[in-house]
Structures are given as structure tokens and as C-alpha cells.
Amino acid sequence: MSKGRVCLAYSGGxxxxxxxKWLVLQGYTVVCYLADVGQxxxxxxxxxxxxxxxxxxxxxxxxxxxxxxxxxxVFRAVQCNAIYEDRYxxxxxxxxxVIARGxxxxxxxxxxxxxxxGSTGKGNDQVRFxxxxxxxxxxxxxxxxxxxxxxxxxFHGRQDLLKFAAENNIPVSxxxxxxxxxxxxxxxxxxxxxxxxxxxxxxPKDLWTMTLDPLDTADAPTxxxxxxxxxxxxxxxxxxxxxxxxxxLFKLLNKIGHDNGVGRIxxxxxxxxxxxxxxxxxxxxxxxxxxxxIDLEGLVxxxxxxxxRDQFVSRAWSRQLYNGMYFSPEREFVExxxxxSQRNVTGQVRMMAYKGNAYVLGRSSDASNxxxxxxxxxxxxEGFSPSDSTGFxxxxxxxxKKFGLQKQKDGLPLTQT
Length: 417
Description:
Helices cover 41% and strands 19% of the residues. The chain has helices at residues 14-25, 45-54, 66-80, 91-109, 125-136, 149-152, 158-167, 246-259, 284-300, 303-322, 329-341, 373-376, 388-409; strands at residues 5-9, 29-36, 59-64, 114-116, 141-143, 181-184, 189-192, 222-229, 232-238, 241-243, 264-270, 276-282, 347-354, 357-364.
């Protein structure tokens, strides 16, 4: 008799194949689920399904979530200028809410009582997935094998996994495993662990999969333009080609970034569980879109709104995504502020990508009157009296004069070096 029905997040790789077989041997009925968020492995859906059924899964469900991923999460990140610890563009974090929601939907569809995943006990993903599960359907229980002593005491490392695979006729790739782990989606590919755990070691040249080495890119720059409506990319123009579909235009930005080596970072970040971790990421399309969006905001966004957004909204939304709090009231609250701030962020940005960098060549918009060439011109006094600046300076200097006088009285004059 079955112990219950489990919906397992299954990739077809070694770890989740071991977990699938282990769950079957424990007496569970397993429904396997794969979210296609643009990772290359998902293209081999037939082989993944065949392997899952071979190992004892009742069924294999593969959900194409690329459009939801781009339109609901990635474009919101662009509107927000989302970034974590000043470097990381949240490529993995953005995909997790979409994957988790899809897994709960499949679990509900096939009457599962349990959800299971292959995230480790030291990483961020276990927290992201399980916080999402509890918000989406608190009645579903979680089986996290890498936190169960009967599992991690048995499988200490890759050799134990391979031994179990051989004993249970689990197909294993004959290709040698890279000495690091990878996680890919439409936005980025992340690389960590293995030889990368030495933070002083330079990543090997063959590590990067989504960008060319900037030293190997073409000697001629690539010029293109990105069009935005209310902060969302709606069109990318490259030569005679125009992309307006959300997935198509994002893939085009990825290609531009890939071909010109744009979007590589190598960082040490602070995981949610408090551990410092070295990670390498290539994020070509989002790096370009974010730069263009920030530039357009400089033209059309009110300075005080932008200041408040940057101080609170962007930072809060980014941390909420990183920390697995997408399905939370605070994320909904902050996201409404993001959307409100983008009402006038409509226009186009002309860009150039070249040798590892993206550059803005120009920008234009009819959505805001904040920038006026005549106001900004040094050759025109129309609508502006230079003498008004005298009073402006005097008013702003009132407290500074008192501050300076107090410092003199205290024997610490500001003129003292």
C-alpha cells in the first residue's frame, strides 16, 4: 500500500533521479514535475520523461513556464532595477516562485499529499521553495531528503550516489561531471561549489555558457535599441529585425549579450542561511535591459520619486525575492509601489554592446516633460533667472553657517585640516 502521493521536482539529473528511486523504494507514489523556465536541459523533454517512468514515477509533467517567468518576474525585476548586494541580478531567485507555484498546481491536480525537492540543507533554494509551498497550500507536507538523516547519512557524496545508481539500474550520463555545479534558466546560468569554493581561484575559461569571453568577441560593436512602456521592454530593434514578443525580445537581448560577452560577474554573496558563498553568473539580457531602463528613468522619472524608490522599494523587493518572500503581503505592497513609479517610464534607449560592456548611445521619450532642452541649455535664460540662484543658495546655507559657527565655538573650526 502506498505511503502517499508525492510531487517531486525532477530534472532528470543524478540527484533527483536518486531521490525519485529512493521515494519509490520508501513506498511512495511519485508524480514527477519539471518546470521549463528556459534551461537547456528542458529541451530534451522526451528523454527526461522516459527516464522518470523507467525509475518508477507514475507520470511526468513538464510545464512550459517561460512566458510567465519573463512577463511576471523578469520584467518586474527590470521595472524595479532589482539587484542583491550591489552585484547579483537575482537570476535564480526570480525563477523559484514560478517553479514552486507550478509544482503546487501539479500536486493539487494529481491529488498529492507531499511535495519534494532536491535542494541541499545549506542553500537558499530549500527556503525559497518551502516558504512558497506554505503560502500556496499549507496542507501539503514537504519531504526534503537532503535534510533527512536516513538520506544524508547514506549518501555522503557523489560516489555514494553513483553506487546507488548502479545498484538500482539508474542511467547515469557518461559525460564527465564539471568540477562545479550549475543552475540555468532563461535569465542566467549560475556556477558554484567544487573548485569555485576557493574564492581566489580564477574561473576556468570553459565555465561560462551564456556569454563569450570578451577577449574573443567581434572587434565591431553591436548597435540596437530597446523600447519601454511603463518600464517594461516591449520592443528590441537590431538592424532590420524587430522583436516584440516578450520571450523573443528577451532571447534577442540574451544573444546580443552573449555575442559581446556582456553580463559576467564573479562574487561572494551572503546566503539567506548566513553562509558566505562564492558564485559566478552570466546574465546577458537582463544586464542590458536593466542598464537601459535605469538610463530612461533618468530622463523621465521625478527625482524625489526615484530617490524613495531606490532607497526602499528596489532594495526591499530584491531582498524579498532573494529571501523567498515572493508570496507575502510585503512583496505585494512593495510591488504596487514599483508599478506606480513606472507610469511615465516610456521611451526608447539606443545602445551598443562591445567587448564585455553595454553602453547607452542616446535616449528619447514623449511621456514626460521633466527634461527640457531649453531649461538645460547653457545658452538660454528662457524661463530661468540666474539671480534667483542667490536666494536659493542663501536659504540652503542657513543651517550650514550655524554649523560652521558652532564648530568654531567648540574649538574645531572646519578650516582645520
